[in-house]
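note to self: dont lose this again. the chain is below, predicted strucutre after it. 705 aa total, dont forget to put it in the shared folder this time
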Amino acid sequence: SGKTKEIAWLAHELSSLHTRDDDKVFSKVIVITDRRVLDRQLQDQIRQFEQVRGVVRSIDSDSSQLREALTDAQAKIVVTTLQKFPFVLAALDELGEEKAGGLKAGSYAVVVDEAHSSQTGDSATDLKAVLGSVRPEDLDLEEDDGTPAVLLARLAARGRQPNLSFFAFTATPKGKTLELFGQKGPDGSLAAFHTYSMRQAIEEDFIVDVLRQYTTFDQLARLETEADEQLEVPKGKAGSFFSQFVNLHPYVKAQKAAIVVEHYQRVVRPLLGGEGKAMVVCASREEAVQWKRALDQEIERHGHAGLRALVAFSGEVTVRNPEADNAGMAYTEPQMNKIAGKPLPESKLPDEFAKPEYGILVVAEKYQTGFDQPKLCGMYVDKTLTGVNAVQTLSRLNRSAPGKDEVYVLDFQNTGEQIRAAFEPFYGQTEATPTDPNVLFDAADAVRGFGVIDDAELAGFQEQWASLGEVEEGKRHAVLSTSTQGAYERALELDADERRELKDALARFVRFHGFLGQVVPYLPAAIEVLFQFSKVLLKRLMAVEPKGGVNLSGTVELTHFRLDEVDTEHIGLEEADAKPLSAIGSDGTGPGQIPLGALSELVEVFNDRYGEGLGDGDALRVLEEVRDTVRDGNADLAAQAGANSREDFVRHRDDLLIGAAMDVTVDREKQAPLLKALLDDEDFRARASELVMGSIYEGLRDGPN
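---
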């Protein structure tokens, strides 16, 4: 791709860059990738520029190979994965003080092939710990307070390193990316040093516009309860279960597979001289298994000669859907992709898919990024896509090829407006607003506020963590677990809701620290200790408790299902509509308890939203737009929410509801029935007021949504 070629060119230019006094600017150029597929592409491309054997070192075996390349004077360009640096750091003592110090005395150009969130993790800190020149004595410490040397070394490795220059590439810069690598403008906003925008690339025919032929569908499903008793389950979790139940149902998969195969054969395959290919994007590995089976059955049923499908997913997956005819069976990617009766190795899949007989590739996370197949002309989306993930996934289609003028997307899960919102921040120049470092200290206070972690236990943990180097590697986990045992036991004494909120707070603090630790020049040692403690405690709590799935097997039944094509459109984008990104925003774990409701009520709500005809489901879909219109158009509601009870806030809001419904344009055909219900049906009006105004009240009282 163009990015790979530019990285290769830049790496060689940087390796030969000299000052006016003819001194080398950089001791070495380190090219970092964290994707194995892209790593091979980069190695091959960079080697093409190599003129003297040994100048380019590709680290394709283990960390000892990286350690040797870093200390070998002949190696000028090192291509490696970020994940190898922790092992180099652990073995740094083996180099001896002179060689280890020599590494830190050098100057390095670090070229990052995908500047995303992995650059805020521990591996990125380990890279700085190996190569960075900041020493513990360089920290702005008021006095020696007895902080262990190991902890001070970790603090020194965070933040900016004067001997490291980063050159980061990405097509989808997040707020964190821009704050780590961007340049600050006169107005304080952060932007990329150079941008070759999506808009420009499309206009110059370097990439294909993936939104030109975008078809969306409505899934109309009806569920009925089979249980005789009322069951209390968290609404959010049960709602997620219902969606998953429908998407995994064998009948639903068969219906979608029929649409995909027919569309592929009629529209996609004839492209590029009959070699057009397509990708099916799934929400989970289990769905990928069922999609592959459904496609194989549909292809065999209709005798489509010369058409085969492949599937890509990691590891082994066991089918857990009780409705499936293969429930309990385990699958791996090679086993499902047999060639002449033999499993296809995962590394061979890209080359196999390139052959003419393979038309459709089913993926679950794997190959949604970093997969370069120019013959992809169609995509079938059966997964909710948001933000960067939407752009990266759909961009698998944008590779140009001779004769490739159109690409087609059929989306079973997302609306055109949702996809437009995901793409617009990346269409032109992407900007971000700087993060207030206080959010990290607020997150730390939130963790401490549960009363689970005390100072004495933190002090004991600090001592144990600082001496881990003296403990056998296999016993280190046990040492850290023992050091968090008191907090762990106190966490288990919390009720289920408080414990869930604690885990959310721990996860938020760990995530914020991973990012801000790379940006803020210096963080207090106490924050670093709390961070290390929180990581261990969170891991223990996540291991002992399920992730929150709801087992409703046998309690619901799918009685009706229909797929309706909504529209085929060219989703147009405008640079002016993009808003600055934030490095730290809403994380989906907002305050407040998850409301509980009877199972039968939840089934009714689900049917209201996705049921057939002009029922309550169509009305509620529009009510979500009504809610946003009411909230955004009435600034005084915030003060009213602060001064009133929920009951008083919700009461007498008919005029706001009716006025907002008249302004909504998302679904004109459904507005007339909605307005009629709001005007004529007192019961429906009361339901609508509770839904709309209640959600607004909770959002304003608990903070921004």
